[in-house]
Queue: 2 jobs
Job 1
Amino acid sequence: VQLQASGGGLVQAGGSLRLSCLASGRTFSSYAMGWFRQAPEKVREFVAAITWKGGVDNYAGSVEGRATISRDTAKNTVYLQMNNLKPEDTAVYFCGADRYGTTYFGQGTLVTVSS
């Protein structure tokens, strides 16, 4: 499984970003795809997930209402739209692919939110 995240950058508080994750190396129809993040000196935490096949999504409470996860099965890409960004959203964001409890992670993309 190869997962390539992109779209991070520096944004002011209140701004928006869309992260992308290009997935390859497998047929992902039985996978759940997710976004995770890790802030400096903190553990990696769940942000959002979506099932590849049915598009069922769920979110961490900290981003509920501000984040939307989606996927484009034709492009093998998962997106995370983040709005009303806050300084506490600053982290390296990772894309993950989970199947039967085994999660693969790609390299992360850094999101920095300035106040």
Note: The CA atoms of residues 12 and 114 lie 5 Å apart.
Job 2
Amino acid sequence: VQLVESGGGLVQAGGSLRLSCAASGRTFSSYVMGWFRQAPGKEREFVANINWSGETSYFSDSVKGRFTISRDNAKNTVYLQMNSLKPEDTAVYYCKAQTGGIYYWGRGTQVTVSS
């Protein structure tokens, strides 16, 4: 499985961005899809994930209420809608696909939020 993130960029505090993660392969719907982020000098941290059907999702406390996650299995794509962005949301955002003990990472997309 290859994952390619897009949609990152520079935005002012309070603004919005939508990240996309396009996956290759025909088994996309079997994967739990997630978003993680890593700020300079910090460890990679969980942001959100979504189950195969899109009915169940989880968010970190730091983004709950501001970010939403969705997926389109017909397009092999997962999305992260980020609203009310804060400077502390600045990071490289990574997409992760996981099934059982097998997982794949994308290369990331930079999100920068200016104050």
Note: The chain has no helices and eleven strands.
